[in-house]
Amino acid sequence: MEKANGWIEIEYNHLRHNVLEIKKLIPKKTTFMAVVKANAYGHGMVPVATYLNTIGITSFAVARIEEAMELRKAGIEGEILVFGYTPPNQCQLLFDYDIVQTVVDVEHAIALEEMQIPIKVHLKIDTGMHRLGIGYQNIKDVISIFQYQSLSVEGIYTHLCVCDSLEQDDIDFTKQQIDSFYHVVDALKAHCIKVPKIHIQSSYGVLNYPELSCDYVRIGIAMYGILSTDDHTTVKSANLKPVLSIKAKIISLRTVATGDTVGYGRTYVCQKATRVAVIPVGYADGIPRNFGAQGGYVHIKGQRVPIIGRICMDQMTIDISQHDVAIGDTVSVIGADDITVEYIAKICNTITNEVLSRLSSRLPRFYIKEKKSESK
To answer: What kind and span of H or E run contains 130?
Structure first.
């Protein structure tokens, strides 16, 4: 397939490297659960999961049943956990595709049981995030689910909402969440209920609370070689490599006269005759609309080139007055040393997770296979 005007490159060797780096931080008995929801954070869910299968990853997590079914249809092997709500009337699909469903609250558990279809579930425990889960205080409700005939409880977990922060208040709250979760675990033991597999840590949970020893770790953003922001200090560090880059080709060149404006809203006024190049990627491809207005730039031939004017739905414009470029030259939009996803997220006042998950499917993905020397 010939590269289009704009495209995404995914480096499998970096993905493998990141998995191995994170595995160094977790106990050998702990299972690496690869989080591939939201199209694998923009990287391409099926190709990423397929590759992960080839390197021994057999535990996956998604947000919706539709994602889990897509993985199964693509031949993904192993267990697939749905984090989010699945309507009870889709229980047959959970059974047919061998998908593990999260019980998001007591009412959900009751409704799933009433379907009388045998399915595998993990119980979500709410320890303070107050989004999904059964309250940790509701021990009787948790215990009752273990008595259900149709629900096979194979896991129990919680979600730490500030484990990315090392502020003392946040550390205290996280430890309180952990204690609350183990309060439920201890209660199960006290009632002679076999405790299913447990999981607490996401990417930041592993980096900031490595002392926890669980059956799974749920690794999302770190697996893709970045962290949510560029200013986080963590207890443990990992030598991560970004997996994704975005490139495009220059499609048009023009000279704009002194005093003329460029783009929507006439926000950029040329102070002198300006050579302008057009790149065919925009906010419909997932590049934040305000990236240019915040001083954003791209790379051409290893040099910074400023974005000028507003980023459009399908294009952006750059000032190439100081650079020798031609139509068809390749531009690095994300992936150069100093145009990281962390950098873009920072100046656009968001997090990398949002930037990546917004990357459009209309940008073709090209998957770069491992070099033989790196796959031995």
So the answer is: none
Compute the distance between CA of residue 94 and CA of residue 108 in angstroms, rounded to an integer: 14
Q: Is 123 within a domain? A: yes
Residue for token digits 């940790």?
136
Domain shared by 39 and 151, yes or no: yes
- Domain count of the chain? 2
CATH number at residue 331: 2.40.37.10
C-alpha span between 77 and 54 (Å, rounded): 10
Pick the catalytic residue: 37, 51, 247, 343?
Answer: 37
Is the separation of the CB atoms in 331 and 250 below 8 Å?
yes
**114, 144: one domain:** yes
Is 297 an active-site residue? no
Which pLDDT value is given to residue 1? 54
For residue 115, what are the domain limits? 12-224
Q: Does one domain contain both 128 and 188?
A: yes
Closest among 31, 32, 63 to 45, alpha carbons compared:
63
- Asked whether residue 359 falls in the same domain as residue 255, the answer is yes
Among the listed residues 3, 73, 189, 264, the single catalytic one is 264
pLDDT tens-digit map of 30-73: 999 999 999 999 999 999 999 999 999 999 999 999 999 999 99
Residue-wise burial string across 88-104, b where 16 or more C-beta atoms lie within 10 A, e elsewhere: bebbebbbeeebbbbbb
Check if 264 is active-site.
yes
pTM higher than the cut 0.70: yes
